[in-house]
Design a protein that fits this description.
The complex is a heterodimer of chains A (182) and B (283). Chain A has helices spanning 3-11, 17-36, 40-57, 66-85, 90-100, 111-127, 131-141, 147-154, 158-178. With 182 residues, chain A is an all-alpha fold. Chain A folds into two domains: 3-87, Rna Polymerase Sigma Factor, Chain: A (Orthogonal Bundle); 91-178, Arc Repressor Mutant, subunit A (Orthogonal Bundle). The longest helix of chain A is centred in the last third of the chain and has 21 residues, at 158-178. Chain A is globular. Chain B folds into two domains: 3-52, no CATH class; 55-281, no CATH class. Chain B is built from eight helices and twelve strands. Chain B has helices at 3-11, 16-24, 30-43, 47-54, 104-107, 125-132, 137-140, 269-281; strands at 64-74, 81-92, 96-97, 116-122, 156-163, 166-176, 185-195, 205-209, 216-223, 228-235, 246-254, 257-265. In chain B, strands 3, 4, 5, 6, 7, 9, 10, 11 and 12 form a nine-stranded mixed beta sheet that branches. A three-stranded antiparallel beta sheet of chain B has the order 1-2-8, with no helix packed on it. Chain B is globular. Chain B starts with a helix and ends with a helix. Classes of the chains: A mainly alpha (182), B alpha+beta (283). Chains A and B meet through helix 1, helix 2, helix 3, helix 4 and helix 5 of A and helix 1, helix 2, strand 1, strand 2 and strand 5 of B.
Chain lengths: 182, 283
Amino acid sequence: MTDGGLVELIWNREDGALAALQRAYGPWCRAISERILTDPRDVEECVSDCWLAVWRAIPPARPEHFKGWLGAVVRNQALAMARRSGRQVPLVDEAALELADALPAPGGPEEELQAAELGRAISEFLRGEKREVRAAFLRRYWYAEGVEQVAVRMGWSVPKTKSVLSRVKNRLRVYLEKEGYL
Amino acid sequence: MTRRDWAMEVIGRVDPALIEEADRVRVSSPWRRMRACVLAAACIGLLSVSVVMAVNLIAGGYKSVKYIEDGFLHLGGEAYQYYSDLYYLEGGQPAFLPLDQLTEEAKALAVEGEAGGRNKSFSSWQRAEEFYNITFHDLHNNTIFDQLPPSNHSMTSTYVSSSPEGITSVWFSEHWYRVRGVPGLNLSIEAYVLTELMDMEGMDLTSGGCPPSGSEYSTEEYYGKNISAFIAHVKEPPRNDSSPTEYYSAHFILNGVQYKVITSCEEDIQQARELLIEIIDGF
């Protein structure tokens, strides 16, 4: 079933919509939350909360890129759960701290707006990068995969992967400076 | 907010289209391809081990099953709360239908350049097969399926899913009632076919069921004469003073096509189970 078909089922509240959603994206959502939540019970709870969040959001939302949107939903659920429990997740923390070097510091009551703007700016920057570089960057910093995992996926050596990620972060910093964010 | 949390927050706002793309990109290096060939050659000697391992798979071609109980669904208002259990099979190996096999009429169901889905109904399963040029040989070779009376069935429903490139999957479903003249003995058969355009992205097939929370259910792996199936027996709680709904549901994969067979019988649930077993044994 396509993402469009899935959104239609959920929109129309049709029988089997939830089962279709779980069938299509259950493993994928679990994989995303497993990188952030180490306890399998938390993972199941997170994914279950994710289905509920999707059900609540659609309608009125009708995401154009459903898979990416769903990934953001489950990732945010998992991060919120991790924060509430106070657990550290070394792999995610390492990726986040690496990326933080390239970003302006947060500040003030307009953090929400600033985060959205920065997200758009990073998206614009990434569209100017090669597809493989873009993918490697997001696998490392959005999907929170380890460098070795990213290397395997991209068919690169680990040193090459580290080098690519380092260079793209530097280019991101330059881009954000030029755009006035830094 | 810490720098760490801030970075996670910001990266979480990246365009979902780019997130999707990153999930599709997977590059195989020449060394990995060569290594795969070397490993394949070495595995020839391990074939007997592989066969032994295969019988440890869950019945019906799936590798694992998961259960989730009491997942809360909020359906549009506090007055209508819905809890659901779920059993979830995964790990099946698909087969992909060449797109050229579909008829031009079938291909026309896909909206050019867009992703979407379309329903289309037919007077019989055979008519649906003719329309798509998909023949479910396994079903036609089944001793029970071909005996089902054409007069005691509903329309054959199909649902076509498509990507901007074309049709990615076709789902067939039909319902028979009063099977063998037995009042209340009902049968549903569903078949799910993937085309070569379906991007599984390294994922295996999945199947399952979603009975309301509070259902009683038991499951078994049934090893029939020629095929095996994962069978669930579900008894849903009564709703609004109506009787509870009870049925058997079998899930299996044959030649890369996913099947789901559901039987029920108001008067005698055992007849439903017997019919289900006969169908499985009829392959």
